[in-house]
Amino acid sequence: MGLIVDVFAARSDNFGYLVHDQASGRTAAIDAPEAGPIRAALEQRGWTLTDIFITHHHIDHVEAIAELKQAFGTRVVGPRDEADKIEGLDELVGDGDTLELGETRFAVMATPGHTLGHVVFHDAEGGHLFSADALFSLGVGRMFEGTPGPMWAGLKRLRELPDDTLVYCGHEYTQANAKFALSIDPDNESLKARAAEVESLRAAGRPTIPFNLGEDKKANPFLRADAPELAKHFDLEGADPADVFAAIRKGKDNF
C-alpha cells in the first residue's frame, strides 16, 4: 500500500493534485485551484474527496475551497500563519507538524518567501514533495511577501531532502525558468540537459513534473545560490549566499 498521485491541469497554468492513500481510501486535494478539474479527476479515478491540504493563501490555490467543502464535506487543513487570510480552514498546521492522510504521513515544512506563511508537504516514505509555489522546476516563486534570507534558508532545507524525491509544484513554468537559468549559468551541463528535456516534453504537450529533486539541485540556480560561479556572474564573490539569491530573484523578475 502507498500513495497514488494524480496530476492534472487547472486554471491557465496551475497543476492540480489528488493524493490517494490506498490503505484507507482517503483522498486529498493539494490546494484547491479550481473545482471543475478536481471534480473531473475524482470522477475519472472513482475517488471521493475527503481532505484538502492548503499551502498558502493566494487565490489560485484556495478559490475552490468553499465549493468543494460544501459538495464533499471535506476536512480542510492549512498554514497556521495564514489562517486569517484563508476562509474555511478546519485544522491549522505549521513547521514541524505531521499531517496524516490514512496511513500516509506528511511532514509540514515552512518555506517563507513567496508568502510569509507558505508551507510544503513532504511524504518521506513515498518520496513525494508537494512544493506549491516555494520551489518550481528550475525556479522558485516570486518573493511577494518575504525577504531573501528566510526564503533561502527554507530552500536549503528542501535541498537537504533525498535526491530521489519527486517534486510536484504549483505551476508549469519550467520552460521560462530554463531560459532564464541558462542566461546566468550557461556552462552548467546538468542545466543544459534538463533544458533540452523540457523542450522535448513541452513540444510533445507533456508536463514537466514531477521532477527529480537531485537533478534540480544541480540545475536550478535558486538552489545553487552558494555556488561560486553564480556569485561571480553577479559580481558578488565572497558575498552571503542570501545576497546572491536576492540577485538571482531580481534577475528573474526583470528577465
From TrEMBL:
Residue sites binding Zn(2+) 2 per the record: 60-61, 133, 171
Residues at which Zn(2+) 1 binds: 56, 58, 114, 133
Pfam families named in the record: HAGH_C (PF16123), Lactamase_B (PF00753)
CDD domains for the chain: hydroxyacylglutathione_hydrolase_MBL-fold
Reaction equations catalysed: an S-(2-hydroxyacyl)glutathione + H2O = a 2-hydroxy carboxylate + glutathione + H(+)
Keyword terms, alphabetized: Hydrolase, Metal-binding, Zinc
Domain of life: Bacteria
EC top class named in words: hydrolase
GO biological process, one term: methylglyoxal catabolic process to D-lactate via S-lactoyl-glutathione
Metallo-beta-lactamase domain: residues covered: 13-171
Protein's UniProt keywords contain Plastid: no
Cofactor(s) demanded: Zn(2+)
Pathway: Secondary metabolite metabolism; methylglyoxal degradation; (R)-lactate from methylglyoxal: step 2/2
EC identifiers of the protein: 3.1.2.6
GO molecular function annotations of the record: hydroxyacylglutathione hydrolase activity; metal ion binding
Cofactor note: Binds 2 Zn(2+) ions per subunit.
Subunit note: Monomer.
Function noted in UniProt: Thiolesterase that catalyzes the hydrolysis of S-D-lactoyl-glutathione to form glutathione and D-lactic acid.
UniProt cross-references to NCBIfam families, sorted A to Z: GSH_gloB
Stored HAMAP family: Glyoxalase_2
Stated family: Belongs to the metallo-beta-lactamase superfamily. Glyoxalase II family.
Stated name of the protein: Hydroxyacylglutathione hydrolase
UniProt lineage: Bacteria, Pseudomonadati, Pseudomonadota, Alphaproteobacteria, Hyphomicrobiales
This protein's encoding gene: gloB
